[in-house]
Amino acid sequence: CEPYITSDHALMRERAEEIAQGIGILARLLKPREILLGIEDNKADVVENLQRELRAHDFSALCGRECSAEVITFPTKYPSGGEKQLIEILTGKQVPAGGLPAKLGIVCQNLGTAVAIADAVLRDKPLISRITTVTGEAVTTPCNFEVLLGTPVEDLLQACGYNAAQNNRLVMGGPMMGFALLDTRVPIVKTTNCLLAPTEAELPTPPPAQPCIRCGFCAEACPASLLPQQLYWFAQGKELEKLEEHNIADCIECGACSYVCPSNIPLVQYYRAAKAEIRERDRDMQQAEYAKKRFDARQERLQRLEEEKLAARKARQAKAAARSAQHARQNANEISGESGDADPKATAVAAAIARVEAKKAASGSAAASSGNAV
Ligand code: SF4
Ligand code: SF4
Predict the structure, then answer these.
(1) pLDDT single digits (tens) 287-332
(2) Mean pLDDT calculated for residue range 145-161
(3) SS3 343
């Protein structure tokens, strides 16, 4: 829904049937009661076609329950394409801060995803291409291309009559959320919805940022009901916890706050950098947690092995003691057997020897055990 970008509009014009097929597959999986297809009212030319395609599908049969599907148009106002914003426009329900639409029993997908699902499931075609808008006054023939992922940006620009001398900066994405490209030798990726090549007059270079005057315009413009100026302060001070408390995760990076800021502060750039830092911190914390778990598991394993070794040693010693005692008893029996009729004196001597042998073996085993214990 960003200005300049017409790739989704082209998709709705050219691939309405695949959109309906993709919605059908999603409906079969998710079994919703209601399917709402939201379209801004400046794209009225595609509404009828999409309605016809939706009518051609029996979503109730696909879901196995009563299910309605309709196209809803709403006023074109940037930014309304964000997931939470769109859900509120279409259903009146607000997704809680930090929460997911699934908490409200809602799944929100864009049309490109529906087409990709239909291509993958019905035509065995992986996601290898996408529609990209090439526009701006520095190209002579702006248009939408279905382009293979990996295609060099410079090839696409050449196909549109790109004039590098007129272009003040090349943007991948739209004027609000896009990134400046420093080199045209980069590939088109899954998220490249637009290449914008404006002239200086068309999209002037922003003047240098001035200090925040706390006018509050950014808060009024924020579609996510955040406090952009507060986020800006916390981002400058790298106060990541405070940023999280102020729901920076809900920022959709729409750029509306930067656009209205009279001090020309590039607020979104601060938020993007802060979000990257939060992600990095979370990754580091997770890695530290994994490392601790690995260390604890290793300690546990080493202790278990030591205990097993000790138990095996004790078992061996007990066996040796039993063998010695048995041996001594045999000796005693032999002595008494050699002397013919049982000589009480010889029998007593043999028994004493056997006891001494057994005692020796037992005390040897105990000494070894206590030595191990030390
Ligand atoms: S719009 Fe700019 S100057 Fe005004 S409060 Fe927000 S950040 Fe500060
Ligand atoms: S970029 Fe600015 S206006 Fe947009 S959601 Fe984030 S804080 Fe709000």
Answers:
(1) 999 999 999 999 999 999 999 999 999 999 999 999 988 888 887 7
(2) 96
(3) coil
Cα 361 to averaged position of ligand 1 atoms, centre (Å): 89
Q: Alpha carbon of 124 to those of 17, 116, 130, 148, 308: distances in Å?
A: 16, 10, 16, 16, 55
- Tens digit of each residue's pLDDT (9 = 90 or more) over 228-278: 999 999 999 999 999 999 999 999 999 999 999 999 999 999 999 999 999
Pick the atom of ligand 1 nearest to 211's CA.
3
Q: Which residue has the tokens 């005693």?
A: 332
pLDDT in tens, 304-313: 999 999 999 9
Whose Cα sits closest to atom 2 in ligand 2?
Answer: 257
Contacts 24+ apart (CB under 8 A), 96-104: 97/247, 97/250, 98/247, 98/249, 98/250
Q: Distance, CA 235 to ligand 2 centroid (Å)?
A: 13
The arithmetic mean of pLDDT across residues 118-142, rounded, is: 97
Closest by alpha carbon to 217, among 258, 266, 269, 176? 258
* Topology of the domain covering 128-205: Ubiquitin-like (UB roll) (3.10.20)
Domain boundaries, the chain: 1-126, 128-205
CATH 3.40.50.11540 fits 1-126, yes or no: yes
* Cα-to-centroid distance, 357 and ligand 1 (Å): 95
Residue 258 CB–ligand 1 contact under 6 Å: no
Tokens of 238: 């790298």
